[in-house]
Each structure stands twice: as C-alpha cells, then as structure tokens.
Amino acid sequence: MTTQHQQVQTPTGTTPEAEPAREPRTGCPAVAGRSPARMAWNRIRRDKMTLVALAVTVLFMMIALLAPVLTALTGWGPITPDGKAIDPDTGNFPYGSLGGISLTHLLGVEPGTGYDLFARIVYGLRTSLLVGFASAVLSTVVGVLAGLAAGYSGGWVDSVLSRVMDVMLAFPQLLFIIALTPVIQNALQTNTHGGTDENLRLLVLVLNIAVFAWAYTARLVRGQVLSLREREFVDAARIMSAGRWHILLRQLLPNLWAPVLISFALAVPQNITTEAALSYLGVGVIPPNPDWGALLSDASQYFLQDPMYLFIPGVLLLILVLALNLLGDGVRDALDPRASRS
Q: Is this prediction's pTM over 0.85?
C-alpha cells in the first residue's frame, strides 16, 4: 500500500500561514506565558484615563527637558525682561488684555518685571519635576533599605526602626521643613556676596522632603517583608545556606518592586505639591531659579489687575499634579491583581 502526499499549492510569492504551536499530547494551541510587567502594561493600555494621564505626564517632561530649545525659539529667557511690554503709567502692568498675551509673549509677561511668563513657567516646570523626582527617588531608596532591615531582621532592629518610623510619621512635615530649610541653608553655605546659593537651596529642599517622606515607603516595605520571609522560597534559600544579603537582594527585593513602584508613583505629585507650597510661603526655591510656587505667590498680589498671571501657572500646576496622581492610581490598579476593573 502506498501513501500519497498531497501538496498545498500557494500563489507565487506568498508563504503558507504557519500553524500555531500545539501541545504534543493534547493538540491544543500552546499558551504563551506573560511576565507581570507585560500583564500590567496590558491593563494600563485598556485604561483610557491612565493613558491620558501618561501622555500628559510625558508631555510635561518633554517640555521641561526641551526648555532651552523652546525659550530659544521664542527669543526670551526666564530672566530676560521686556521693558516695552509693560506700561509704566499703569504701575508696570502689561500692555493689552489677558496679561499681555501676544505672538511675542505666548503666555503674557509678569507685571512689574516684564519677564516672559512662558519662559518662567517652562523653567519652573524643570525645577518642580527635579525636586519632585529627586526627593521621591531618595526617599524610596532609604525607605526600601529601612523596610527590608526592619522586616527581615526582627527583634530589636525592627523595634528601633519601627519607633523611628512612628516618630517621622507623627511630625507635621510642612511646618518642620519650613523651620529647618533656612537653618540648614545658613549652616551649610553663604556665598561671598552675603546671599544664598540657589542651587544649594534645591539640594536642601530635596533632602528635607526626602527625610520626612521615607517612613511611608519603609512602613509599606516592612509589612510586605514580614509576609514574604515566611514563604517557602525563603526557607529553601536558608536550607541551601544562602547568606542574608542573597536572601534580601535576590529573594525578597524582586518581589517588592510592585509596591515600591506604586509608592514612588504616588510620592512624586505629593513632593511637587510640597515644593510648590514651600516656595509659595517663601522658604522654597529662591531667585533667579523660576518656580511655580513662587509665581503663584507673586501673582496673588496682582490678581485683581492681572488675573491671567495667577490663572495660567495655577491651572498648569493643577493639571500636572492631577495627571501624576491619576497615573499613580492607574499603576497601582495595574500591578494589583486583586483590583476590580470594569
């Protein structure tokens, strides 16, 4: 008996469609595994609100990174006054309506100084994002290390670190930062002209915000480690004579990236708001560094005469913080498999 082999004829230049891989025993198509990161990204892609928040956040970050290019295109820097744009007969208020908005000054000019508001806002965005992200990174790193040490070590180490966390969480953060920022600034450095170094002030702000923010991450990580250290894979690592650092860095830490990422995503907008509040109160960023909080503080004096000076930076700050909060909520929902989704 002979066996006939049938060949499938296909048109010239085409390739027959490959069949999906099948299980050797059942003949069913094989199921491709997906990593937790890929599953989280798929959930984010299905959430339109999170995608919009992500797009807005990326847009703000690109504007901050391209601040020198954007201001070069407009021809005005953050500390380049335009005396022709303000009217000395009206108390140096901008010419025209809407705060002097024109093709020359896209968002108008500052009353009294003639600074281009677009340049001030763009460079102020860089300041806000720098302080927000830098303090969030520093507080997250310190919080993860403290949480790992407290949760895994237990005993007196856990007791001491837990009491320190309780004390830090009990502090009224904003009041202590207001009190400590000038003190630390004066203790570290005073420049040769008797003024304050604006770059050092940024460093002091980052350190002060991080000092009062790390306890939140540490408390979260400690709770996760207390649960993970009793799991079978940790016991197996101990049986195989794995060292403490191997268990902390290779066994526990990879299982903490989801809550740590969520904590970081939610800390950034909170730190930006704190920095803007400090600058509004006069203990944050100092000139010549532009800052949105300082802009709002100056604009409050001219609200009745020039409402756009207060409205524009206020609305932009609201949009930025709202987008970062929505993005943080979306990341939390995407990384939490127990979160309910429609």
A: no
